[in-house]
Write a structure and sequence with these properties.
Helix 3 (65-73) crosses helix 4 (77-84). Helix content is 31%, strand content 24%. It has three domains: 3-100, Zinc finger, CHC2-typedomain (DNA Primase, Chain A, Alpha-Beta Complex); 105-170, no CATH class; 176-281, Dna Topoisomerase Vi A Subunit, Chain: A, domain 2 (3-Layer(aba) Sandwich). The protein contains ten helices and 15 strands. It is globular. The strands form three sheets. Strands 1-2-3-4-5 form a five-stranded antiparallel β-sheet.
């Protein structure tokens, strides 16, 4: 595979996450990270997600995904290409499309209980229709056209929007905290997406549903929750079985005590919802 294709189609965000680098400040197109090879209090590495490149204001050096791996691993181009060979080539295209959609002009028209047959059918296909109380039916206008989807609200008032064809965020990207616990049961369960959280809610007899829950809505949002996670005596991880999920699981396990990786429950599946769909389909 040629270098240009790798530079364009492997997400620079995913590469940085694989080395446990996460944004300190972020908007929809760009983010600031701490430098790759030096300690600093003010982040100086600017990452442009639309161009899939990075620029270090401290050194004046520009990076693509290959040179970032070279810089961090202190390796040759060939070794960097070998490292990148395990990454999904469609990740950058999909995530950038999501970010571009979320940045364009939109207007929320109506938020109500989920009633539309197409959305109920979609929840049924994901085997979580019993949990529709946690989501809303959101009607919105995007670039002059009207749409609707399943909406899951984050802590900044934005909505993660999903339907059979759409995966976008309307408004600011953020995590979603769900508080259920008391002082006696000081646990938190962490999920990447809200469909995994809804799947978790289906298993009252198997899981402890009295714990607090954190939906990241994107692994890149972990930095927004790191301080609060210190308040919990136990952290339960229900993350994806992909490079991002594994990287975040390692980062959390290294930073906090008493972390339990619950992804073994759905071993062989990418995430908790995929496992639930297969289990209920059989």
């Amino acid at each position: 595979m040629n270098c240009e294709k790798i530079k364009k189609n492997i997400s620079i965000r995913s590469v940085l996450q694989s080395f446990s680098f996460f944004p300190v400040k972020e908007n929809r197109r760009t983010a600031f990270y701490f430098a790759l090879e030096r300690e600093e209090k003010v982040p100086s590495l600017c990452v442009d997600f639309s161009k899939n490149t990075a620029f270090d204001f401290g050194t004046g050096r520009s990076y693509d995904v290959i040179s970032i791996v070279q810089q961090i691993k202190k390796c040759s181009v060939a070794e960097a290409l070998k490292y990148l060979s395990s990454f999904n080539l469609t990740v950058h295209i999909e995530r950038f499309a999501e970010e571009i959609q979320s940045e364009t002009s939109y207007r929320i028209l109506k938020v109500e209980e989920v009633r539309h047959p197409a959305l109920i059918q979609y929840l049924d296909s994901r085997k979580v229709s019993e949990q529709k109380k946690w989501v809303r039916e959101v009607h919105y206008e995007l670039n002059g056209k009207k749409y609707f989807g399943i909406g899951f609200k984050n802590d900044s008032g934005g909505f993660e929007i999903r339907n059979k064809y759409t995966k976008i965020c309307l408004g600011a990207k953020d995590v979603s905290w769900i508080s259920n616990s008391n002082d006696v049961n000081n646990e938190v369960a962490i999920f990447e997406g809200f469909f995994d959280y809804l799947s978790f809610c289906n298993f009252e007899s198997q899981f402890n549903l009295n714990c607090d829950c954190l939906v990241l809505n994107s692994t890149a949002m972990l930095f927004k929750a790191q301080k609060k996670l210190n308040e919990y005596q136990k952290i339960l991880l229900f993350l994806d079985h992909d490079d991002n999920g594994k990287s975040v699981a390692l980062k959390i396990s290294a930073a906090y005590d008493n972390v339990e990786d619950c992804s073994l429950i759905y071993h062989g599946f990418n995430d908790l919802n995929e496992w639930l769909v297969k289990r209920k389909t059989n």
